[in-house]
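Exam revision sheet. Question 4 asks you to relate a sequence to its structure. Input first:
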Amino acid sequence: MRIQLSLSDRAVRDAKAYMANPDPEQAIESLIDSYGALVSDLRKLRSRVRQFDDESAELDGLVSKLRVVAALIEDL
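Answer key, structure tokens:
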């Protein structure tokens, strides 16, 4: 299905630049098609960053415990 859209010159110019496609119709269609993949990738990245945060907190706890052990050994 094809529909007619009224888009600003800026929107068309940006779509052509982002998609490296001189054809306005194809550039806009490609841009819209790639949006879903972009959102999916962002969700995966957010999940990975949360995982890094959790791992970092776990490592901080281990480092604290190791410092306590090191201090106990030093006191011997």
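Marking note for examiners. The CA atoms of residues 49 and 55 lie 10 Å apart.
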